[in-house]
Each structure stands twice: as C-alpha cells, then as structure tokens.
Amino acid sequence: MLFLSQLTLGYKDLQVLKISDEYSIHRVIYSLFEDYRSNAEKTSSVKSGFLYAEQKSNSIERRFLILSDRAPNIRNEKIGTVITKKIPENFLKFSQYRFRLLVNPTIRDKNTGKLKPVIGETNISVWFAEKSVSSWGFATSDLNVTSIEVLNFKGKNGNLLTISRAEIEGTLTVTNFELFASSFAHGIGRAHAFGCGLLQLVPIYQ
Q1: What whole-number distance in Å separates Cα of residue 193 and Cα of residue 82?
Q2: pLDDT tens digits for 128-179?
Q3: Domain ranges across the chain
Q4: Which domain of life is it from (predicted)?
C-alpha cells in the first residue's frame, strides 16, 4: 500500500523550522517518518520508504508532495499542514500518463568510475528517454526539460554537497507494468533524499 501526502509550510512554519536550503527541507520531511533501517542499511542501498518533490515555492509558502509506504507520523509534530490519502490500487494500471519529475541526471565516467552530471537540455532528454525504456519500464514522448539547476548546500556534518537537478515533463507509455510500478514506488534516478525521483502522474483516459 502506498500513501500520498501534501505538506504545506506557511510563512511562520518556514521561520520556526529555519527552512533555508535543501538540507533543511530534507530534515523536516524525514522527521515525519520513523526510520526503520539500521545504520548499515542507511549507508547501503536500502531505501527510506518515501520520496518527495516540491510543488510550490515562494516567500510565504512552500508545498511538497510525498509518496510513502507508510503514513507520516504527525501526532507529536507541529510541522505545517499535512493531508494524506491512500493511492487507489488501480492507479498504476493505465497505459499512458502525463508526468512531471525532478530528477538528478547522472552517468558514470568510463575512465574514473565516478558519477558526473548530464549537462544540457538535449543531453538530458536523450539520457532520460534511453533510461526510461531500459531501466524504468516506460517509453516517453513530448519530453520537455523545463528547468536545470545546480544545488549547493551543507549536509548533516557540515560537508558541502552539490546536486544537479532537472525538471522534466511529458507523456509516458508503460512498456513493463511491473518495472513501472517499482519505479513509481522506489523512485527514478538518484538524490532521492533531496527531492529527486518522484514521478508525479496524471492518468490519460482512453
């Protein structure tokens, strides 16, 4: 079972919670969920069980969409306004969807083995279209890279983190329903902890 939540932080919330960068957002959203992973699992590939993406941002309000495998725990938290609902079982049974996605586009350097960002709208579009079919269970059309940004902020231990993030919109056609459902539930690409990877879907009724 999956849950979809909307978190709205008003002006006072932003001030009280000291929202200033991506790590402060990460801290607030992660506080809504008990972490069932061990320390070893946290440093490995075991997922947190939730994804999030920012929907709206201005000086007086910020709004986030959260997908999770458990409902957020807000009984003892005074964190904005949270509205949660269960995702219907048939939501992932459609053949086509309109989608929006914030994604961290990266490739592994063949010489060094290190990850590096995919640069430029055309390269990001090609990367995403190829990965969609091979890794995520869907084919794409009408792709549009609406924004590209580089985020620089300090992490938990004060170390500097840099993440490239692109916003992509378009239409997808499911080619592998099992893989597509896994991609939706577990996220696309990397940097899930900092607002990347959540497929925001609107079914296309035929």
Answers
A1: 19
A2: 999 999 999 999 999 999 999 999 988 887 788 899 999 999 999 999 999 9
A3: 3-86, 91-203
A4: Bacteria
